[in-house]
Amino acid sequence: MMGNGILILGIVILVGFLGNFFFNKTRIPESVFLMLIGVLLGPVFNVVSGKFFIDNASFLISLALVVVLLDSGLTLKISKTLKNAPTALIFTILVMISTVAIVSAVTVLFFDWPLINGIFLGIIGSGTTTITITHLVEKLSVGKNTRTLLILESVVNDITLITAVSILIAFVLSGSGKASIFKVIFNELVISVILGLVFALIWAYVFLKYIHGNKLAYVFTLGIAFIIFDGVEFFGFNGAIAVLIFSLVLGNYSVLVSKLKAYSKILAPIKADISIVRSMNTEITFIMRTLFFVFLGVIFNTSVVKWGILLFVLIIVVAEVVSRYVAAKALAFFEPRFANSVPVMTTLVASGFTSTLVAFLSIEAGINIPNLAEVVLLLVMFTTLWAIIGSAVLERRLERIETY
């Protein structure tokens, strides 16, 4: 058994590279490959001990979360999203609401789970992964607007998932009562958003004044993001939302500067710095994604995977598909132009990195989900297989149906 942390990290990074190579060659999502490699390295051949990952789980999850938040904010163009596909935002929210409702009902009524567990699993199940969805939707004969909607949904729900889970955890940790609910909403949204904006302004000021053009722009930005995350949490607010707002301001800096015409020349120089930060964060996000999926496979307990848990996950996947169908039909009711796209929107249900990441935030809130690692890994695999097989079947049908 290998116990050296640096050696394990080296193996994981190389596995991530192989996973990306495997994806480029076969078009099978690298998440599936990475989790299977993790299972082989961990419980099957016992090459890597799950103890290393479990002992450092809290740190790894927080590290991955900050990097993902930076990536989500830096890559999401708010003006483009609002201008070109506002329907995607509506659809994302509809999917989350319907998934939470249906999954919660199934887990509470049929499996006797606490309601909070069902809500948490519903939020997790509402997310789709950009890598898989983009690949599958580009292979399908669908209209431009449907393609845009599904890709934007996969991007936007990174933000909605993290925000929804952060607020849910805050409710759980704060207890019940009207006063605490008001306080949670105020602290989690209003104060955290303001703090994110303030830190973004501080970042811009420091760059303009002292370190514009510095080659270590990304290191400085990542350090600031870590401080924001933990510092805001320390004072009782939401670090995740603060980092998200901070990164959204950086990611949309060019648009914001163009609105401030009187100061545009003064503020413009650090656009190049933000481009450097964005490109570097893509590399770090790749490492974090790799580390997390392999981690999930390594801690997977093969002994608990019996017919009961397989049936449970399959039922949850069906519930997720039904919820997407409900959301798609609701969207088509208000936007009839998407009526022919309902089968496509229902089929592309593949979960990914953000869903698995936020799942483990339940530990922080003391939400005890039985066999969490096993359920999450199987959910990613089952939903990915559903999406791949379903899209292949749909393609024959879509050639005869015109979608918007």
Number of helices: 20
Low-confidence stretches: none
Q: Which bin fits the share of residues in helices?
A: over 70%
H-E order: HHHHHHHHHHHHHHHHHHHH
Give the N-to-C terminal Cα separation: 54 Å
Q: Which sheet architecture does the biggest sheet show?
A: none
Secondary structure: number of strands = 0
Q: Residue-averaged pLDDT, rounded?
A: 83
Evaluate the radius of gyration: 21 Å
Q: How large a portion of the residues is in β-strands, by DSSP E?
A: under 5%
- Judged by helices, strands and strand pairing, the structural class is mainly alpha
Descriptive terms for the model:
404 residues, mainly alpha
Descriptive report:
The chain has helices spanning 5-26, 30-44, 50-55, 57-75, 78-84, 86-111, 115-125, 130-139, 144-174, 178-211, 217-234, 239-251, 253-259, 264-267, 271-298, 307-334, 342-347, 353-359, 362-365, 372-398. By secondary structure, the protein is mainly α. Helix 1 runs antiparallel to helix 2. It is globular, with a radius of gyration of 21 Å. The termini are far apart. The model has no long low-confidence stretch (mean pLDDT 83).
Question: Could you write a compact summary of the structure shown?
Answer:
By secondary structure, the protein is an all-alpha fold.
